[in-house]
Amino acid sequence: MTVVAGDTTMIAFSVNGRDVEVSANGARRLSRVLREDLGLTGTKVGCDAGDCGACTVLLNGEPACACLVAAGQAAGCEIVTVEGLAKRSPVHGRLQQSFLAHGAAQCGACTPGMLVSASALLERNSSPSESEVMDAIGGVLCRCTGYRKIISAVLEAGVACGSGGVKTAEAGAAVGARLVRLDGQRKVEGSEIFGADEIPRDALGVRAVRSPHHRARFQFGDLDGFVARHPGVVLVLTAKDVPGVDCYGVIPRCADQPVFAHREARYRGEAVAAIVGEPDALEKLDLSEFPVRWEELAPIKTIDQGLADGAPRIHEQRDENVLVRGRVVRGDVEQALKQADFVVEGEFETGFVEHAYIEPEAGFARRVGDTIEVQACTQSPYMDRHDIAKILGIAQEKVRIIPTAVGGGFGSKLDLSVQPFIALAAWKLGRPVRMVYSRTESIVSTTKRHPARMRLRAGAMRDGRLTALDFSADFNTGAYSSWGPTVAGRVPVHASGPYVVPNYRALTRAVHTNIVPAGAFRGFGVPQAAIAQEQIYDELADRVGIDRLEFRILNALNNDTPTVSGQVLGEGVGIHACFEALRPKWKATRSAGSQFNAATKGPLRRGVGVAGMWYGCGNTSLPNPSTVRIGLKRDGRIALHQGAVDIGQGSNTIVTQICADAVGAPITHFDLVSGDTAISPDCGKTSASRQTFVTGKAAHMAGTKLREAILNLAGACKCGELRFGDSSISVCENGKSHTLDLSSLPVDEHGYVITCQETFDPPITPLDENGQGNPYAVYGFGAHMAEVEVDIELGTVRVLKVTASHDVGKAINPTLVEGQIEGGVAQGLGMALMEEFFPGKGENLHDYLIPSAGDVPEIESILIEEPSSIGPFGAKGIGEQAVIPTAPAILNAIYDAVGVRIRKVPATPDRVRAAILEKARGGVRG
Amino acid sequence: MAAGASFPPVQTGRLRIQTVEAKGDAGFWGLTLYLKPRTLDQAVSLLAATPGQILAGGTDFYPALGERSPQGNVVDITALDEIRGISIENDHVRIGGLTTWTQVIRTPLPRCLDALKAAAREVGSVQIQNRGTVAGNLCNASPAADGVPPLLALDAEVELLSGDGRRRVPLAQFITGNRRTLRGSNEILTAVLVPRRLDQAASAFLKLGARRYLVISISMVAAVVQVEAGRVSEARVAVGSCSASAKRLKELEKDLAGVPATSAIGGAVRAEHLLPLSPIDDARATADYRRDASLTLVRRALEVCVGRL
After folding, report:
1. pTM, whole model, 2 decimals?
2. Nearest CA-CA partner of B169 in B190, B149, B153
3. Which residues 526-545 of A have a C-beta within 8 angstroms of B?
């Protein structure tokens, strides 16, 4: 026995075939020893609780969560991490290649855990079944992919090349190719650098002190004494330490959030102070001993409490706690409802939904002279730069934001998280300062999907024509504005669905409460609206007595019909095609379901549901330019400065594919330059399904310009063909060839022979007081069909299959498009069936459930290409579009199966069973 | 003792003791001591001498820490090979406390332990099954502990060892509430003893959760059915996640005796049989739902048992 009365002992074990000895406390988590002591940061930490499996390693050949293994338990053992897989045996190398070929890695945060878990299976069983694969990876959560491509990658790991991915494409043939993502190799090797993966020497750490109450006044005790009593603690930061304007927010005109609460904390999880110190010292701190006295106040938790007469104002300047109102009105909805042959109405409710990306927020900052550098995971480097400059009280040019790879974002990493704390501390101390959120900290303090309460009345004529929709919604926007205005503004434009609704009124309010801010989450409120609207339309179709899919086809928008904001798109309206693609399957599956239900004597009932979707790409009636710079280098390679942060969705690859074909150069000739604000222009935020469309268009324009400049330099006409060589370009024209020797040409201030920079801002118009105008230049369209099986005795719902048709204009990379669809379906399924965050409860990934590998069914993607002439090669966005129709399709399928309408999501087993019992008792349906 | 000084290891009998590396004023007791005894005797004397938290599979230990590093002494018992693994003895099956769920799955066991194997496959994930131990599951005493209903249904006992000696306690008494047990802080749960009286009875375990993997159950049921001449001679039913700790349904067990062992066996179960349960409303489900769903699960578990006969 080793009795060590000091903190540390020497622990010897083998890692990836190498013998190592580390000095550590034996009880230290192995995950920390691997990452922080041995630099093996391929092993990711997502929860420190065994709930996500991202840190899975092989311990003597068996998968284990490294966060649950004591360093002392590794003594004498053989550990294999993702970094060691490829050299362990050819099986692992093939698995990594299969992951790349199938597009099984999106953000890459779960990828190491997935690869290690699947490797353990393949070592025992070289041709596993699908259910064996699911069992093997069931302990690793993924939030991006929907698991299906991961399962395929494991199943086909033994098959040479498998289906799918190519590593290169001929010049001019990149668009439309299933190219392996350009940043994929790093993700399967574990060498990608995420927010927590670079640990500067001598970096101090930060722990935030957060309010344990939804609303509380507070007073600090002796902070200097606290620092003095805790060796290794260097500094405590509070509101008084903010040198600039202590008020930030993603929408500058609504900015209202302080770095640290001033006197009163407005939500549970709001930071009031930050303790900066040596990492070891911080880990030992018991934050309950921090000198702060709380005086709990009665919180406003619900929309009704926020709106109540006499409710205290959460922000002095906002009457009735209403942050903002949204409004779109067209025609005369009251009159139309009176005249309609059929009117249905209903109220629907959704809860808080957590983004639950596998990578918690992390990064570090350092001061370099009079500049602050912040390297962190983010979706919006230039917006971060704006707010950090404001907080520090320095010029924006003195702030450099270096975005790392992002382990999933889905909207929440648009807002600041660790950045103000590390920037303030590093600015003040002149030492690098690092912060990594725990899973709990991430859940309690970062934004959520807005809970919605929606009331609808919809009317139709006997022939099935929709004539009116009256929609009103209140959103619980939490304590600070975040993206509340965007949700309240976008929903009224979209709440009609992709249909012609001549008489329309949509009114929304975002209401403040003492809850963690609700912000951006894939779809900005439209998924919530679709849950209500697509269910109401099903009810209306039933009332009219027309098939639910045919009802949608009958009313679908086309190129010449006006939207509810009066916009006539004129082209690229692919919703008819999306619905029609489902028609044969719809008929066959409905009849198979009815036969099953008629024949069964057991408790299972099958049902099929459909839902449609439209979604405008880019900001709503607001400018959102992207600027892309490309440079021809003397060695003949092309530098692509594209500042669109790739959060897993694939913009690094998509934008390069577009640019390559615009130039006419092979994609292998491109060098990607990151979204570092010091070296790349602003491509705006990765949000609003805008990067393929907006940044892609800017890349197309810059690429076209570069092509023209090269031809011009060679004195050739526009139809000349370019052949890229080493340090030279051959221009072929009318059978004649002319070679440009690049190495002899002068370079400009960027170091390039030719630099082209282009900006694209989608053509939109402002909305008038009735929400009429052209809010978006391009819309994506889609329709999902869900097949479900409901256990009527238990109320459990199993989704058997989702068929998803999406009009993407042009699928720049079909594998990546499918990846977005499958991931969107999985998130929609979670929203429909299991996901709800209860503030103050279950702030972890075992109480907050997201779908696991066993919950996501087969997904069949049908890609429709109705090009938009504005988008690059006709392309539209797909990121958010993919999530919107899944939940209502599932809810409509539940109704189809058992005749109960679930008006409050998620449709958990208890809610479904209660509705079934209610119906059996003869109560009102749903 | 000078701050930061370290001293060479000292051999004392079988114990290799490395003496104190004191840090500043923190002193001996301000530090986290990681102690890894090699034998059961060492572990017992260590726990007798000094307070410490026992660490085994770590699957409950580490999640409970949150953001802090471990505080106080940590006694890692995973080197105690004496209490690992399963042996089939004359009158009972002895499951060593350190036996992992994966070992439960991989070890051939009498049929009455099919339910325990099924539960083992439902524990968290492969990663958790590879590390988490049977003893840890019982000592953590979560109301949703997957291992408890199958063992409770078989009248399992636990064996506890300390400097004061060895004792056996029926599992039904050992777990006294939500995360509360009779284990003294100096005691190690060395084994679970499962009587072999119902060795060849059919058993089943059903877990209901809101997702497929990595899920805490809403309700779970273990059932054991022994049949003679086409009728139930003995039945055991335990329900978890519906009370502070899993509960046996004794009235139901009595009423099942003599019932024909057919697929209609579920019909013998009535709502009143679930009265021993005291489910709560929580984020996973309502109490009413738990009662209602448990009734269905009990019926189905019995039907599965009959189907396996």
Report:
1. 0.96
2. B190
3. none
